[in-house]
């Protein structure tokens, strides 16, 4: 039975440095009942919804895609029944409680000349904000204010590209990283901006459709470089910095070489239904190719085969449980 619903609450603002720690009050115990919290992080304009689940032991920070918003992305992954609003009644608390997950959903920003291009500064696009610093501060706040040390950064599309940027440039900020249809910017192939997290980088899970017309992986799964769809770029051209993206499988090969010095072979995958899975570095790196899936989370879910609308989230939790 769902616990009694509490009204929307706003917690006191706590400015936390990206490294955490400091002279802060002890973290409160886990919430005794579910709460929906609205907050901002000092120095950053992003609105943040926190689905504070009773008894939560871990948190997932969920980033929406380009032109997206914090309500719609929670709907897309099956944790909100509404794509346009978030209330206590629209949140799928049962799944969150069963997995002891607190969901944190920030709102991406946009440059003044392109108000429809809500996104993240991930080297592919720009939001006009220092999103790396924002996510560092948000992670520190979650740890200090909610007492949760197990943090996953997960993003779809341009949110996934931002997760890739953080994995490359700030790997210790989160416990693990997950990208849904969001390859890294090809900027990381340039000498001045290498993806160099080091051998101790956090675990990474990628889930990508092989018929994705937005990042153009369809028919080019093992290509070195993917191209963002020209129509997608044209719709928000001023916000784009680099429409070239790193082919996800090739990037996973580089991740494998960096983390454990191994070679990831194109044929070294296990198949289950429509999903081909590559695992390397003792399972710290996992890549799932969902055959027949396009760019949307709904398509990934459908092609993964189960009746549940939470296929992607269940895969994320399975990865979280061991890494």
UniProtKB/TrEMBL annotation:
Keyword Hydrolase carried by entry: yes
Transmembrane domains' residue ranges: none
Alphabetical keyword list: Hydrolase
AB hydrolase-1 domain span: 60-309
PROSITE patterns associated with the record: PROKAR_LIPOPROTEIN
Pfam family, one: Abhydrolase_6
Superkingdom, taxonomy of origin: Bacteria
Sample GO molecular function, one term: hydrolase activity
Name recorded for this polypeptide: Alpha/beta fold hydrolase
Organism of provenance: Pelomonas margarita
């Amino acid at each position: 039975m769902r616990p009694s619903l509490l009204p929307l609450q706003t917690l006191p603002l706590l400015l936390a440095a990206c490294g955490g720690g400091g002279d802060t009050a002890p973290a409160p115990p886990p919430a005794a009942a579910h709460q929906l919290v609205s907050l901002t992080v000092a120095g950053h304009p992003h609105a943040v919804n926190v689905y504070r689940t009773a008894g939560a032991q871990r948190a997932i920070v969920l980033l929406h895609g380009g032109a997206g918003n914090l309500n719609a992305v929670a709907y897309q992954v099956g944790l909100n029944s509404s794509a346009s609003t978030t209330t206590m009644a629209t949140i799928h608390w049962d799944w969150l409680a069963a997995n002891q997950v607190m969901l944190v959903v920030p709102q991406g920003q946009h440059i003044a000349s392109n108000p429809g291009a809500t996104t993240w500064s991930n080297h592919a696009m720009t939001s006009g904000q220092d999103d790396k610093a924002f996510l560092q501060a948000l992670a520190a706040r979650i740890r200090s204010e909610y007492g949760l040390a197990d943090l996953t950064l997960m993003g779809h599309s341009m949110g996934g590209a931002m997760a890739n940027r953080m994995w490359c440039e700030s790997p210790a900020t989160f416990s693990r990283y997950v990208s849904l249809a969001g390859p890294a910017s090809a900027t990381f192939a340039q000498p001045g901006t290498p993806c160099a997290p080091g051998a101790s980088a956090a675990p990474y899970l990628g889930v990508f459709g092989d018929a994705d017309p937005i990042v153009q992986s369809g028919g080019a799964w093992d290509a070195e470089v993917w191209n963002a769809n020209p129509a997608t770029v044209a719709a928000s051209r001023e916000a784009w910095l680099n429409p070239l993206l790193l082919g996800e499988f090739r990037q996973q090969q580089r991740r494998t070489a960096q983390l454990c010095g191994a070679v990831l072979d194109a044929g070294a995958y296990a198949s289950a239904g429509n999903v081909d899975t590559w695992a390397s570095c003792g399972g710290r790196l996992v890549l799932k190719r969902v055959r027949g899936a396009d760019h949307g989370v709904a398509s990934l879910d459908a092609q993964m085969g189960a009746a549940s609308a939470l296929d992607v989230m269940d895969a994320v939790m399975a990865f979280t449980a061991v890494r």
